[in-house]
Specification:
Aminopeptidase
């Protein structure tokens, strides 16, 4: 139950001061994201989530190159489908919207997963897995671990993930983790789950 607080008789803050407080709070939030652990262990001892940065550009490019048709089959990931090594290096040098991890299975980069703040205590997930590793439960382990990290490190209370229509495997992964349809758009469906 929310406690009643009488309004203060203080004058309201000037808009610039209030905006500065918001920027400062946002900066603190970004700092917390940057301080997050760079390596996350999963329930599968062979699967590790490790921060994906420019030093892994050759491995990430090789993964993209092998999976161009797989990534673009539903109409999304078009930029990745045309990626060059230079494009990969530029994209990995840019700060991500949140935490950007590579999925490493027995020492090999097999996919990518991201956790980004969307609203207070609500996060979006984005992910993809190389076609040769689909159907082995790797993404289920990776998502489970990343959601746990979101709850423990950032107080996440809800998660969202968008899936392009036709991607039944991704829908099955999310459904298996307890996600439900939040909204159905013309080209994709947004799934949500309480943390």
């Amino acid at each position: 139950m929310a406690a009643f607080r009488p309004q203060s008789r203080r004058e309201p803050e000037k808009p610039i001061v209030a905006a500065h407080r918001g920027i400062r709070a946002h900066s603190v939030w970004l700092s917390l994201l940057k301080l997050a652990h760079a390596v996350l262990l999963t329930a599968d001892p062979a699967l590790v989530l490790r921060e994906l940065n420019v030093s892994e550009a050759p491995a990430y490019y090789a993964l993209l190159d092998r999976n161009r048709a797989h990534l673009t089959q539903f109409g999304n990931y078009q930029a990745e489908g045309k990626a060059t090594l230079a494009w990969v290096k530029r994209s990995l040098k840019r700060p991500g919207a949140g935490l950007r991890f590579g999925l490493w299975y027995s020492g090999e980069l097999v996919g990518r997963i991201e956790l980004a703040a969307w609203a207070q205590h609500r996060f979006t997930l984005a992910y993809w897995l190389g076609s040769e590793h689909v159907g082995r439960g790797l993404m289920t382990h990776a998502l489970t671990r990343l959601m746990q990290h979101g709850r423990e490190s950032f107080g996440a209370t809800a998660f969202f993930a968008g899936v392009t229509h036709g991607n039944s495997r991704s829908v099955a992964v999310l459904r298996g983790l307890g996600y439900e349809i939040a909204i159905d758009h013309c080209d994709h469906t947004v799934f949500s789950r309480v943390a």
